[in-house]
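Ticket #4471: complex job returned nothing on first submit. Input attached below:
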Amino acid sequence: MKKNFKTEIKFTRTYKEYINHHPAIREAHCLKAEFPDYFQPIQQNDLYAGRLKHGLVGFSPDEWGSTAFGYYILKPELQNILNDETTDEKTKKEIEEIISFWETENTSAKIRRSYPPEMAKYLPSDDWMNQSGIAFPLYRLTGGNINFKKLMQLGLPGLRKEILSKLATAKENNLDEKFYEGSLIALNVINDIIDYYIRDAETQKELADAENILRLNNIIDTLKLIKDSRPKTLREGIQLFWLYANAADVRNYGRMDVYLGDLLANDLDCRIITEVEALKMLQSLWQLMADKHTVVHNRVIIGGKGRANENNADRFAILAMEASRTVLEIEPQLSLRIYEGMNPDVFDKALEVIGEGRTFPIIYNDDVNLNSVVKAFGFTEKEAEQYVPYGCGEYILEHQSFGTPSGVINLLKALEVTLHNGIDPVTKKQMGLALGTFESFKTFDDLWNGYKKQIEHYVRIMADHEALEYNVAGEVAPYLLMSMLYDDCLEKGKGIFSGGIRYLGGTLETYGNTNTADSLLVIKKLIYVDKSVSKEELLKAIDNNFIGFEKLKKKIADVPKYGNDIDEADDMLLKVHNHVCNYVRDQKDRVGLHSYMIVNINNSANTLMGRSTSASADGRLAFTSMNNGNTPTSGNDKNGITSLLNSIVKPATDIHAGAVQNIKFSSQMFTEHKDELKALLKTYFENGGAQAMITVVNRGDLENAMNEPEKYKHVFVRVGGFSARFVELAKDIQLDILNRTLY
Amino acid sequence: MNATDTNGLVFDIQRFSLHDGPGIRTTIFLKGCPLNCAWCHNPEAKPYKQQLSFNENLCTSCMECVKVCNNTVHSFVNGKHNVNFDACELSGKCVEVCPSEALQIIGKEYSTNEIINIVLRDKKYFENSNGGLTISGGEPLAQFKFTKSLLMKAKDAGLHTAIETCGFAKEQQYLDILPYVDLFLYDIKAAEDKKHIEFTGASNKLILLNLDLLSNNGANIILRCPLIPGVNDSEEHLSFIAGLNKKYQNILKVEVMAFHNIGRDKSKNIGVEYKFNDKPNADENTKRMWIAKLEDYGCTNISIG
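Support reply: We reran it on our side without changes. The output follows.
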């Protein structure tokens, strides 16, 4: 348990001191107060400095715990310390002061305080992981991909120079001087961090052996170099990238092959380093990323159209995949953009690494996605070339746009509540709109309209919430280290969320899409078309989790399900998909965002939210996992891999901001049927496949791993928008993955 | 050419089939076979009509089937579910009420149009992998009209076609379908006719004649040779296979189909006797030995199918 709260106290004091100052100045001084303190010493084997461990209060654009972002407080952790008997009275008093100040002053609290009454009524809880609900807000500014290319080109001195020149002319250009003054202070914080690590390395050298002295000397030399000039080698490039990313708390790293490819190629061609050394450098970086345990971030993008030095970038991409093959961790989330005419060696390397069961790289198909990004976001074709997936798979334009998911909506819960006239059967309380009983929906269209109304009601609230969250976040701070490397912000002298960004968009995570569609088809067929089941009976069956309704369950099983290339079932999915995608997309002008779209991604929310969702008409049992992303409910795809792939390419990809497809293959496919596998994937991508996350396991491994976890730590699986060691997952998530069809 | 639409009895449609011809294929399994091979791994394919199947492992003893059956096919003795398959008149009522899918009717009527529409959904996969349609069974030629119509429609659609045949059909039928078949997966089961009759219930004379006929008429052939340890893997048989391979230029490859006891449970499910209940699957050493011997006898292109 943490004993020392000096930095938290210092941070709080600094914030109070600058509370009425310009937000840029306040933020800059707060950064100075928390850094370098929250950075941790270099560890054995690290080739770079940069291990961040945030404190219990601090500042970050992204979340550090439930609802903790911006000026955040980790209240539960502090509360634990307060409740601990061994905590002395003085510390207790300090903590109480910290809590009482930040309780109302933290950014999430400010956002919730500004909810209008309607929003507060329908979004009563922030605890989406544990409570039952149709929609929940999320508090964070996540997925920022800053301009690392520019950072590499300018280095810290160049960036400082640019800010200084903006400052010099700010007054005459009627720009906000304070923004630039704050930016300079923030940039100096990076120097403070560098100095801290030089001191740390010098100290560690005193007890180090010859080999480690060499390693530490390299770190010291590199740190000194990047402080004074732009990076000229791969080592310097990685070091600068890593320190800056940590200080800015940017967790998704964009097109790394573009901004590090030239440095790598130059190092290799000039024989500054060997391939082996280059690989070691990446391996060390990969390990540093893995140790951050972000679970859903740490995206590294390689490949794709629109890269200036494609050859150099491809060399980096292949090396990056080799690093992912050899560093047996679940992060970084290496993602490869592919396209017709790409270097075949890059794709072959990808199949090699995936085939070994590493779950990486995740594949994104430019030949589909560029066009989708153009249509969905309204970007130009040239702009669309710079799309990057972040987090669990949402798309933005690198350093030009933002699209943080600030909410989740459980479509299946919305249907459940609609069938119960606005009552949540789990809590027995009024939750959504009361639109009439199931009995009162005389036709399927009546029911469909009720469902739509329910969804639309929540979507409007969530769109308002997204805009509101950005507004409050923009008032609170300019997020200097991120903004100074986001297009237009330096030019305008404004933070990303204070009017600086070029394209401010938002996203809404949808869950239970497939279960909702399958349920609707069951209801339509059995109740409204065949009339072989009464509404009362179905409702009773659902409410009793099908216990005593085995015959009905059989009937339900016989109704086609999404994922089998059966039009009737797939069409219902399209109906659900098109409705929610289009309605969400239509909100942007009303709430003043450049775009607002759904993302059909998945972390483990299909399971977590499933735990509060009762049985559904598609036969899914109460409180079990819902479907994952754009894939069928686990085990419901029974017609072979081609029919699965044919189904999952049907939903339009140009009306949302990203969707994920999980496919589970046996390792034999990659060894005994490699040619067919390649043809299969090629066809899937030609048919419009946008994305593929491929888990490769041996038959029986997952069952065995549940029984003897200690022997199966090497088994990696793709959960949804993140990878995991299978044995480390909760049991119901394990079951969901086990139940997925293995091809 | 416009093939007429005709109906057939199909017991399985397997998409992404990788073992019945080159590339990615869709294999259509037809019911009905003139042979009665002791080791058959698709025993449900033999009868020419639909039949009831019961998987004991899935049964929850709910006894719903007992209540709905008019012919007392189902009974429970000391908690054990007995099925009188002979009494079944295929009403399908028990299947409808069985909550655990332990009961099934094997065989479903499809028209060739319906089948071709399913097959064409994967056309691009075939094109990118040099795959196509395979008709298997059972014996495809046992439903000759259906098979021919399906083959013609497939050729119309530009698909690569294969049929898996036991060789036991009229010569004229082979000549009729020959223009529409790109590849024959042709079974050879025993060299010696007496043994052939013993294992399969029929003579191999017609089979060898048809092989000769197809070869002389330019068919592409892969020999498929089920090898059952201790039953038909004799030196004589292996050398016979190699002899055929040498004799006919059109034989592209010899595929060894090593014994697998998958037929055991299936036989039990449909209430028929299975002769090799205790026979283990062929192990890797045995397979290697077969291949070595076939090579010794002069086979050039052998694989394990």
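The mean pLDDT of chain A is 96. Closing as resolved unless it happens again.
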